[in-house]
Specification:
By secondary structure, the chain is mainly β. The chain contains no helices and eleven strands. It has strands at 4-7, 10-12, 18-24, 33-39, 46-52, 57-59, 67-72, 77-82, 91-99, 108-111, 115-119. Strands 2, 4, 5, 6, 9, 10 and 11 form a seven-stranded mixed β-sheet that branches. A four-stranded antiparallel β-sheet has the order 1-3-8-7, with no helix packed on it. 27% of the residues are buried.
Length: 121
């Protein structure tokens, strides 16, 4: 089991920046993919950014060039630097850790409880 705890959310004005952090309760080196997802009010959860074990990153089109995901395996942390924030970035942001399953083991999929980001003037 891995517990994930997000922090860093809050209220920010349009054009501002926030940095989200996700702390894991144990090593996440074995996790194949870690990522940030968000759920805007009244909408479904969506992928924001992911980072694979080898460092390959993917971003939603809506955040490319504005958000940067990073992972510190030594500290068991995942971060999301968010710049040039827009009102449409308002959402609860969730940290995720995923490990592929094998023939003898189920996949592992862990989620934090989320942190609220509100972009408003």
């Amino acid at each position: 089991q891995v517990q994930l705890v997000e922090s860093g959310g809050g209220l920010v004005q349009p054009g501002g920046s926030l940095r989200l952090s996700c702390a894991a309760s144990r090593s996440t080196v074995s996790m194949n993919i870690m990522g940030w997802y968000r759920q805007p009010p009244g909408q479904q959860r969506e992928m924001v950014a992911t980072i694979a074990g080898g460092g390959t990153t993917t971003y939603a089109d809506s955040v490319k060039g504005r958000f940067t995901i990073s992972r510190d395996k030594a500290k068991n942390t995942l971060s999301l630097q968010m710049n040039s924030l827009k009102p449409e970035d308002t959402a609860v942001y969730y940290c995720n850790a995923y490990k592929y399953g094998t023939g003898n083991r189920n996949a592992e999929d862990y989620w934090g409880k989320g942190t609220l980001v509100t972009v408003s003037s």
